[in-house]
Amino acid sequence: MSLERTLAIVKPDAVAAGQAGRILALIEERGFRILGLGLTRLRTEQAQGFYAVHRERPFFDGLVRFMTEGPVIVAVLEAEDAVKKWRDTMGATNPAHAAEGTIRKRFAQSIERNAVHGSDSIENARIEVGFFFSAADLI
Ligand code: CMP
């Protein structure tokens, strides 16, 4: 195991539903250190850029519309094995398959409106953190 960073997003559905505080509390309870934190509303081009790997997927336009419909919270999390640890804390992408005790089991409505995002690899975490934060922003 090694000390890693990952990017977390509390998506517009969870922010609008007033669940952001509980999700941030869970992040702290699970032992992540929050190195960077912000509230922002993605512009269409930003969401398209962030999810560029999914450009050809049939759900791409809906995903971009959803991610721009309201504010999101972006956070840089640090922990041992942070990428996997945050993915385990979120649960499966589709809440119907998410394990008990995970954020998506508790808060997500569907595979698209699924409350939270997390980087899927150390390399993508580096890219995704850089999408929202400069090195000087991180405590
Ligand atoms: P996220 O972890 O943010 O990464 C890509 C997102 O695309 C994913 O969460 C879901 O919100 C969305 N997504 C993935 N697969 C599907 C799908 N089959 N239908 C709709 N949205 C999807």
Structural class: alpha+beta
Low-confidence stretches: none
Identify the CATH homologous superfamily. Answer: Nucleoside diphosphate kinase-like domain
Note the beta-strand portion: 15-25%
How do the SSEs run, as a string of H and E? EHHEHHEHHEH
Bound molecules: adenosine-3',5'-cyclic-monophosphate
**Rg calculated over all Cα atoms:** 14 Å
Overall residue-averaged pLDDT value = 97
Number of helices: 7
**Overall shape:** globular
Tally the structural domains. Answer: 1
Give the CATH topology: Alpha-Beta Plaits
Please identify the top-level CATH class.
Answer: Alpha Beta
Can you give the helix content as a percent range? Answer: 25-40%
Oligomer: single chain
Largest sheet: 4 strands, antiparallel
Distance between the termini: 22 Å
CATH architectural name: 2-Layer Sandwich
| Number of extended strands | 4
Structure keywords:
single chain; 139 residues; alpha+beta; Alpha-Beta Plaits; four-stranded antiparallel sheet; 7 helices; 4 strands; 40% helix; binds adenosine-3',5'-cyclic-monophosphate
